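Continuing from the previous page of notes. For each protein in this section, the sequence appears first, followed by its structure tokens. Read the first protein now.
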Amino acid sequence: MKRAFFASLLLSAALPASAIPVTWEASGTLDYVSDTAGLLPFTVNAGDAWTLTMRLDTELLPYETDGSTFSQFRGFDGGQLTVGSNVLDLPSSSFLTYVNIGNDATSHFFGVGFQSNNLPQPGSYVVSMNLQGLGAGPLAIDSIPFEPPSLNDYSSFAYFNLIRFGDLNQAGTSYTSGSIGDNNIESLIKVASPSASVPEPGTVALLSMSFAALALFRRRTEKRSA
């Protein structure tokens, strides 16, 4: 009886901590490139195509909220930016990743961003996609949607930008920077999603331990009953 109880405890501890990842992709064409200080990590031009891939977790709980009109979610699994033939990885290990959702009677907005952990030190980045529309919008503020919002619902602006910071100016009041941007995002789509919840790595380990313990209990019980 004690063995069965202990085994049931192991299994209950190993129940999956579900995560529902989904991958979205925003894309467009650069409107501007500003890099007089030569800070960007690649050479690009206005008119170059860009794609921002965002690997989100729709099960994240709000990190910050005002309880009624705004929420910020942090900690999803990073992404990747492609501009022309250039690729910039945006891993969650090096970047603060966040989703902002706002919705009230006058306006609504949706944003996804990546900030270097050492911001605003020289060489750090901010990459973001931001949408805004007038009036109340389609998204609730208490969860990240599984499907990306429609660009048609965000008529005020839909822009993408990347900023890379350099050194402080001589006055010590601001950092030099290089930037690229697009003021008219052309597409925002879902490109991948799993068919079921994915167990966390620690959950897999717990399950393995549980099954091994159950096998051991069974062998001992068989020996004693023999």
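Done with the first. The second protein uses the same format. Note its length before scrolling.
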Amino acid sequence: MARFRLGRRNFVLAGGSAALSAAAQAQSAPPPALIPRRLLFAVPERSRATISPDGKLVAFSYLGDIWVVEAIGGKARSVTMHRAHEINPVFSPDGRFIAFVRNNNLYVVDAATQRERQLTTDGNENMLDGIFDWVYQEEVYGRGNFRGYWWSPDSSHIVYLQLDERPVKRFTVVDHIPTMQKIELEPYPKAGFPNPIAKLFTVAANGTAPHEVNTEPYSGGDFLIVSVDWTPDSSKVVYQIQNREQTWLDVNMADLSGGGTPKTLFRETTKAWVEPDHNQKITWLKDGSFLWLSERSGFKHLYQYTADGTLEKQITNGPWEVRSLHGIDNHNDWIYFSGTERSVLGTDVYRVHLDGSGLARLSDAAGEHRAIFNPAMTQYVDSWGDIQTPPQVSLLRNDGSRVRVIDTNEVTALFHLRRHQTWTTSAHSLDAFQRRVESTGSQTTLHFEATE
């Protein structure tokens, strides 16, 4: 546990310091996906922390400035000092820079020297560079996620979303937190009214002028940019566009410079709607092909595409779905994912060969398994629970064998709620066990019968 002080306030970096220390001392690169889930910051405002690639630094926004904390020792320092608020900090993949947004413009700051550079200049109240408005964070990229920019893998460029709010009608909201209520006007596109105009730009981290990615083919309609990413060599931007009705989705690729006409790799269509998932990025394989999740068959399954967008094969199949793709072990051609092959009432961890053979369930007990793999895909942390068991955490190898138990999470207060226990309560429903209900007046008696 690392402790540090900012002004008159004491802060605690709890739970994550051990993981960060181990990651920083490891010979290989730490698994960044593992670290944020173990971090709790006692800060009096919402702030998404960002972890440096070597696991040694944590950056976050506090009282309008960007702060960096050393994971080992807890020494804290501010890397910005400006009267305007800075938000949404993210380390570059090489760990040298931290990008952030100030006054709806995109900036980068050198994490060591604190020298900052402004990358965009046209941001204002109605023009948002690298930050989402209400509808994009709530309906497209996920509630609470306002970050609208993405570093290239080589740390040389950033691709960002620009949102023009001028066409969006203002919606009146009453802020009743203060003693005297305030009236606020929020850009809010009601059904049938205009959305913000979205554009995509790339900009070099050294501060050269941004380049717009050509979205002219979609200019005649109301479209959404629902996912943005890079190719592994940082030469191209891969982004997904769909219509407002969400009946189709295009996967496009554009040059880093933004020039020329982007190439549409393929289009997903459906009679219902195509559900975008900005968290599920394209998984690239060593031969340049990539993996894609699609619900085109009625069930979400894995497909392999060549680099030019040609469908090569369907990898998984059946009356069940792949819930999430964890990654691929390129040395052994094993794909790791979570799915519902055993039951739709839970999620298990699976692996399958790239050619579709050797499908194997790695989780033993039925229930809800949530897996986080290391970058080498050799081990994963599994959080498992079911209707009678709070989540238990274990470290497993990529063949499903257990390395050790991390947390059994025993809750002794639940031990008496086992078979054929009777509990009297005034509650009218309890979705915890199979139950038989007898009501007398205002009192309800629940007869618990735990099922196998």
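What the second structure shows: The radius of gyration is 25 Å. The helical segments are 17-25, 134-140. We return to this in next week's lecture.
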